[in-house]
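Continuing the batch. This is chain 6 of the set; chains 1 through 5 are on the previous pages. Same settings as before, nothing changed between runs. Recording input and output for traceability.
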Amino acid sequence: MLGIARRKADVHMRSDVAVIILAGGDGRRIGGGKPLKMLGGERLIDRALELARNWSDLVAVAVRDSAQVAHAEAPTVRDRDLAGPLGGLLSGLDFAHRHRRAFLLTIPVDMPFLPRDLLDRARGSIGDRCCAVAASGGHLHPVCALWRSSAMAAAEAYAASGRHSLRGLAEQLGFATVEWPVERIDPFFNVNTNEDLTQAARAAY
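Output for chain 6:
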């Protein structure tokens, strides 16, 4: 299994970054309660927290209701009332800004195999752009991205215009793409259904 000890050994904490775990989706395709689903003896939320806490000492979970991450020992921020993950991003940018962090890394709760070098590579690629977005197999994953907290006003204006696409926001702001190879399993494989959870469990061993 991709154990916690191995994940800790291969990541580096950065003091200028806050991390937000996006966990506000309703997870209807998996029967609800997605963050609390078990994979390899760990809940999805706990796997995400273990990794996030090795990237930064400032980690929170973006939710619509705190019951979505029941008994997870982490602070929560409330999603804005918007469609999709943009509400979590806006709350996360505000969180990072209030804590005077220059960057916000967003990761979703339902990607259990995220690359351990996600933050280091994104931080090394962002340059003078507003965000760096992960990609694999030719597909962008804007829920896995490093954002400058200074982009908060532009992101608020984007949301106020009625647009909700994270990719659209990244394109408007200007972004770097950070590509990972797909080998045994896509590192950005996401769990949307019980069948996905079964596939992830096989890949974890």
